[in-house]
Amino acid sequence: MERARAVRDATTGTRITFSPKVFIPLTMLCRDKCGYCTFAQPPARLEKPYLTAEDILVIARQGARMGCHEALFTLGERPEERYDIAAKWLRDNGYDSTVHYLHDMAKLVLDETGLLPHANAGALYHDELAMLRA
Fold it and tell me: Which end of the chain is more exposed for a tag (fewer CB within 10 A), N or C?
């Protein structure tokens, strides 16, 4: 271990950095049923399937006021594939997928607050990843 530590320190140094971030749970719905996950919830336990743009901006602005530099969007993976309520909410709000909604909300937060958005969105297709990176 001593040798590994020396190689690491010589390569990357010993400085640890931290960027304060605000947590934005875009949706707690998920198509998967992972036994270890405590984040995902069924629709019956939620007030609504997704945070609205207004909800998101309230959270993001509060985070910016408190000194955050990033907005971490968390969400379940493709909940619209499992829950009709998620698919309906997305359709009613002009979206065909959670990832497209995430894209627009990340852009909104960046434009309105300057917070750098990033997401824990689960497995993504190449085109979805490219869209989120744009």
Answer: N
Q: What is the CA radius of gyration of the chain?
A: 18
The model's pTM is 0.87
Long-range contacts of 61-69 (CB under 8 A, 24+ apart): 61/112, 61/113, 62/22, 63/21, 63/22, 63/113, 63/115, 64/22, 64/113, 64/114, 64/115, 66/20, 66/22, 67/20, 68/20, 68/21, 68/22, 68/115, 69/19, 69/20, 69/21, 69/115, 69/116
DSSP category for residue 131: H
Q: DSSP character for 39?
A: S
Residues 24-69: pLDDT tens digits?
A: 999 999 999 999 999 999 999 999 999 999 999 999 999 999 999 9
Q: Is the pLDDT of residue 134 over 90?
A: no
- Strand, coil or helix: what is 75? strand
CA distance 4 to 25: 37
Q: How far is CA 48 from the centre of its chain?
A: 17
Q: d(Cα 62, Cα 67) in Å, to the nearest integer?
A: 9
